Amino acid sequence: MKVASRFMPVATTRSIQPVWAILLVVFAALAVFAFVGQPIVAAAVTAALALAIFALNAKWRRRLASLAAQRAHGSICDFAREFEYRRTDTWVIRAVYEEIQSHLRPLHDAFPVRASDRLTADLGLDPDDIDFDIATRVAQRCGRCLDDTHSNPYYGRVDTVGDMVQFFCSQAREVQPYTSPERTREG
């Protein structure tokens, strides 16, 4: 018997990789060197970058808030109805929905994702975040393998959230997903 997707385990968090840690330390050292050598220039560049990031973040918050207002009371149930659930793995549907929603949480809490949402144009997701963060967590949660993605018919064609669901449904299973929830019988 297939277990409902609501019993799917959460993805485990990853620690920072050594390469990124080294790059972070090098960047911090360069920043300190710049502030010591040219404090006015370094402060001006830092302020300009901070202002640009703040403005872009505010723009995306307003855009997502407007889009969410048009979709009042959207939920995972509405999202799942956009797929043929008898042909589409419900674990993949839930994993994609929850991981994209989780990634958007800093900008908008509980954003109502739709299958037709374009990942970069509509939701503002960074392609690197999609490939290295969201896709990894989705694969881990729904037990799909990320090996041999080049043979997937959706490889290079994932533009919308629905495309991402179809991509993962076309990937081979890595492990048997969690199949038996522990339940207590009341009564």
Structure characterization notes:
With 187 residues, the protein is an all-alpha fold. The chain has one domain (1-182). Helices cover 52% and strands 0% of the residues. The chain has six helices and no strands. It has helices spanning 18-37, 39-70, 76-80, 90-104, 127-142, 161-169. Helix 4 packs across helix 5 (127-142) and helix 4 (90-104) packs across helix 6 (161-169).
Which spans of ≥5 residues are poorly predicted at pLDDT below 50? 183-187
Helix-strand category: mainly alpha
Rg, alpha carbons? 20 Å
- The H-and-E topology, N to C, reads as HHHHHH
Mean pLDDT: 83
Brief overview, please?
The protein is mostly helical and 187 residues long. Helix content is 52%, strand content 0%.
Strand-helix topology:
Blueprint: H1 18-37, H2 39-70, H3 76-80, H4 90-104, H5 127-142, H6 161-169
Helix pairs in contact: 1-2, 4-5, 4-6
